[in-house]
């Protein structure tokens, strides 16, 4: 698969919390965690499970910082 996004972080799925429509997926990226909200349908289509190696692909028009 080719993709135009250049911000891809490789990591491992450490938690999946499914709701009725949306799931929260927590990915360990070198000791830091990225959380993604995706549809339950997407989780099922990808057959995503805890322990799977994935790429967290970040596509955004802005990055906000707060202190």
From TrEMBL:
Keywords in alphabetical order: Molybdenum
SUPFAM superfamilies with a match to the protein in the record: MOP-like (SSF50331)
Annotated signal peptide: none
Tree of life domain: Bacteria
UniProt cross-references to Pfam families, sorted A to Z: TOBE
Residue span, Mop domain: 2-67
NCBIfam families: Mop (TIGR00638)
The name this protein goes by in its record: TOBE domain-containing protein
